Sequence to fold (351 residues):
Amino acid sequence: MQSPLPAMVSGYVSSQIVHATAELGLADALADAPRRYTELAEHTGTDPAALRRLLRALVGLGLVEQLDADRFALTPLGGQLRTAAPDSLRDDVLLSVTPELWQAWGALTHVVRTGEPWRHASTRLTAHESALRDPRTAALYREAKARSSQEFTPGLAEVYDFSRFRTVVDFGGDDGALMAAVLSSAPELHGVLYDLPTALDGVRATLDAAGVGKRCDVVEGDVTGRIRTDADAYLLNHLVRDVGDDAAVALLARCRAAMTPTARVLLFETVMPPLLTSADSASFGLTDLNNLIYTGGRERTAEEYQALLEAAGLTRVAATAVPAADGLPDYHVIEAAPTPAEGATTGPGEK
Fold:
């Protein structure tokens, strides 16, 4: 039996081939009909001979089909690299092989030795921070994060009751889909969504389309700025897993300082099983390692989330599973309340 190790080691070759194909827009150029490689080269601004060699490699990956010596056609799999395809993965491919992330993965041995994320030699920024300096990459990242929220928002209102709150705050609201789902589930609820200036127009459009725009304040800012003290719930959607333990505790402690005794912090996160199988590794093991390299963050087990909350002066009171799309791990709403000071009495509404 042939060892799978050579294919594992050369996996970076396929990654770069697929990334170049997405970057050049080859799938879009082949979307309507087969074309000669010379036509494709003119369309994509590439060297004809080099492009022909790339196309031949794509045949081996099943992304294109060679019809004769000169003509190539797109396969259904290759069609997922089209920009406007319903099942398009082009943006994901572009985001997965950014120069910063590529360089960071090249330093994996150093990362494992030190336990610290890769940082740019001169700026000391992480790969994530470096990548977000590029407007195009930042937009792709925001869109990908919004899609991850949309994997669980359809079922959120079915398993979690937001009607008991009056005001909820969402830090870093992505495209507004999560806040729209929350407000739609509770007609009397008011929302406050904090985000960066570049995202606000898209957020407002999402909220208005859902018919909840008038019940939500959209504010320029994030969790590092001033935190409102009159909210009943503070939503942190995939923010904690993007940072290390110290930063996570600091973030949660800022929320804790703003909370009333009956307020809640709601973490929207995937929860890693304490024992991984080969089936779990793609969802958690590889993602966890990528978080370390890319942002310094990590996937966490239920016990590890609880430890973070306790260190920030919070107590977990509930954890509700929210089914995600087929084949993806469930999300969880981890609900936490302020830990009462020693000797304090339990306030109204406390669990």
Summary: DSSP finds 16 helices and ten strands in the chain. The two ends are 59 Å apart (CA to CA). Confidence is low (pLDDT under 50) at residues 345-351.
